[in-house]
Amino acid sequence: MALTVERIDSPAGFGCYVHGANLNDLSDADFDKIEEALYTHKLVVITKQKDLQPQKQYELNRRFDRTASGLHGHGGKDEVLNKQFKGRQNITLGFPSVPGVDMVRLVGQGTFPPGHYGTTEPLTLAASSHRGFHLTPLDEETMEKERSTRFQRFHIDAQLYPDGNHTARVTSLWAHTLPVGPPLTVRLDDGSSQTITGAKPGRTAFMDSTYIFREMSPQDQQMVLHSEVEYAPNPYEWIINCKGQNSGFSLVSQGKELPIADLPDGEEGLQKVQRLPMCWINPLTNEPAFQVHAIIARKLHIRRSADAPFEVIDDLEEVRATLDRLQRPHLRQEKILFSPQEEGDLVVWYNRGLRHSAVEYPPSYGPRMMHQVHLQASDSVADMEKPGFVLRALEAAEKENSAPKA
């Protein structure tokens, strides 16, 4: 069956399906089509992959970045499993891995019997819950009775520390088991009465960061194109005591961030922080994406043009207010895509151009198990390489042009 690409019919304006792929035996030509679709549409739902082997999912991620280390975006096996600090898990959690394929994490909720790709004991997965993170969470009764929920937190799959741990180009998420139940309504509860409907349980919510940029005023576009954000050292430990906004977009400023001296790397961590552009440029389409991980931003370095001096904003309340002003108006029903994923489908998204959030659902809807992979990149978002299929095409053309003529 020939591989085909079909746009997702959604007002969000991004995403596509790929039909006819066999990811357990994927040719270079078919991979190139998938890679082009990914950079063009930003999110790809590769359908009917119910027999996908975990090793092949890992290898697929590696094909998007063939010179990368192959390590998970949050570190090696020990770091992925043991996200503990001061007796607590940080917000990236400590998810288990598929036996023998350490960089494929098992995420979801519910208890599963032994035998899942080599597991030898019952496996209990605990999902990230907004109830442990939001300042004023919904209670389970409200969620169940009203079918209401929240965006847990909009984020990029990235550690953003230390300098040199580059943000993954792509994330892949394979659906083994999905919950079943009526659609949910996301409440923002941020002083507005705004809700976002149609959240199919167990699916991830996505937002296009290029759309955020396009909708800004010309003045703000100029500013964010030339400005930078500085992230905290040990960022997820830094915010371990903080609470999130009910919208899932940022943190509530309560002064609960840990002192730098109390972080695992102490004051030395300040020498290893990441300072990155606010806008990340798609290396295929050249579209700017306003891609800022707001919950761990510590300073903003603002300038209005390429030759203007930087102005530093280091008051956290002002940092968050500035980012809220730039992005919160664009959190709207028509611009959210709930992943149209069914069991056996693999979703791959451009992690440098989309933000995403888990969407909690009532436990009565049943268990959820996903296989997730994102890997540290070989290139910085400040200096991105062209996609592999472009480089391979250029190399082939160069060889053809340099070949002796008959």
Automatic annotation (TrEMBL):
Cofactor: Fe(2+)
MF (Gene Ontology): dioxygenase activity; metal ion binding
Classification via Gene3D superfamilies: Clavaminate synthase-like
Alphabetically ordered keywords of this record: Dioxygenase, Iron, Metal-binding, Oxidoreductase
Superkingdom of this protein's organism: Eukaryota
Family: Belongs to the TfdA dioxygenase family.
Protein's name according to its UniProt entry: TauD/TfdA-like domain-containing protein
Keyword Metal-binding tagged: yes
Transmembrane is among the record's keywords: no
InterPro entries xrefs: TauD-like_sf, TauD/TfdA-like, TfdA_dioxygenase
PANTHER family, alphabetized: ALPHA-KETOGLUTARATE-DEPENDENT XANTHINE DIOXYGENASE XAN1 (PTHR43779:SF2), DIOXYGENASE RV0097-RELATED (PTHR43779)
SUPFAM superfamilies xref list: Clavaminate synthase-like
Stretches assigned to the TauD/TfdA-like domain: 168-373
